[in-house]
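Exercise: predict the fold of this chain.
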Amino acid sequence: MEMIIVSSEQQKRLVMIFSRTTAKMPDKALLNDLGSYQVNSTAYPAFKAASDLRVERIKLPFGDDRTGSLDGGNFLYRYLSRGYICLGDHVGQPKPDLAQWGVRSVRKLPKVGFGL
């Protein structure tokens, strides 16, 4: 299992992708294929067109959802603490757990996403 964060420094936006199969896909192919991912956000079309998209990957332990939630939360918190907005909803498999950083709930931006 892999958690992938695609981010844009200029827009301060990111998307999270959880996948069992994209590990074999190179970063460039993943960026070219962003249109195939369903993200419920009005800001997603502009995000996909950004020229500064960057990919970061983290391997999540298969079958250990608790450790995967904590690892995913650490990875996501690094971005959110710098002011990034995650496009879409705060979901995933396993769902990133931000509680270890003292975050009990995220600030939702209607039709855009969430942040701290």
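Check your answer against the key: The mean pLDDT is 88.
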